[in-house]
Amino acid sequence: MTNFQTLFDKQDWEQVKSSIYAKTETDVEKALSSSKRTLEDFKALISPAALPYLESMARLSRQTTLKRFGKTIQLFAPMYLSNECQNICTYCGFSFDNKVKRRTLTDEEILQEASVIKQMGFDHILLVTGEANHTVHVDYFKNAIRLLRPHFANISIEVQPLEQHEYEALIPEGLYSVLVYQETYHKERYKTYHPKGKKANFYYRLETPDRLGKAQIHKIGLGALLGLEDWRTDSFFCAFHLDYLQKTYWQTKYSVSFPRIRPAEGITAPEYIITDRELVQLICAYRLFSEEVELSMSTRESEKFRNHILSLGITTISAGSKTNPGGYAVEPDTLEQFEISDERSPQEMAQVITDQGYEPVWKDWDRSYWG
Ligand code: SF4
Prior knowledge:
The structure is a single chain. This protein is α/β, with parallel strands linked by helices. The chain has helices spanning 4-8, 13-21, 25-33, 39-46, 54-69, 107-119, 138-148, 164-170, 187-193, 202-206, 208-214, 231-248, 276-289, 303-309, 346-355, 367-370; strands at 72-80, 124-128, 154-158, 175-179, 219-223, 253-257, 294-297, 316-318, 359-361. The radius of gyration is 20 Å and the shape is globular. The two termini are 29 Å apart. Residues 85, 87, 89, 92, 94-95, 130-131, 199 line the site of iron/sulfur cluster (SF4).
């Protein structure tokens, strides 16, 4: 059976990059008028040649999103369970070489945090950890999901990549979706950003969505960390990955996120910049490429940007987020993974959504429907 690595290894980063930058206005117009868009169309839509077409892209993206998702925006909250991490990731505040106080939440603390998040109105929670396999492992996740399942309709995780059988053990406990971002699809640059720890294994991470698909998870979240490499080329590879997964594990749902590197303790500024306009272009390009993919936006982005993007293709948004373990109730002053930009409360965000004529949805899908 083919896996993504086999397809990925046939691609050459520099050739892909050149082909994106070589796209012309004719390619963009062809992509815009197409009813079923290909990966070549996606390249055209993220190319510099598409920037003058941003208004048309935004209009089409809005229409397509409305048709598929209606006037709804889902809300979720991240809950950081641990900042222990054995990896060195040069862009992250939790990196092993960053001398900060480490904390992993106990059962009691998890429930304390859950109670505050629940009071904010959330029914969909994303559990986040670093990678510390001796303390934050499958049994820890299983226990956390068991504790939280009575309180939340949807539980997702963004933790270290696991084995297929480990995902299979968590799904019956109530695990709904898994987010695993490749960070960058540039194999050599990946090594410089991830010099130590299990995360240094590029291919193990790349193959994680395949293991999730085989485990028959309900939803997989993909993404590239924008700022590590040329955003256009990284986004092409992410779309290529999405396309492969949608065709191979067609019963699974997918989401894509667009994290831009944010300031954090001990990290330097990103080398590759994506402007606000280009980020809008990228979001619209994903929507035009895939009608059914969920597009998610975090509080990394500013109030102004998030207000603007709400009606252009985004389907899921976080609000009131804390990016430190215990950040909601237990110990609000511990080190954050990154600084958030939009500090509005979930209720304020819900009001903004309502004011734009959309309905804020506090849960993704009721568990009773998927058994
Ligand atoms: S990005 Fe994740 S794996 Fe890397 S240092 Fe941060 S918490 Fe650890």
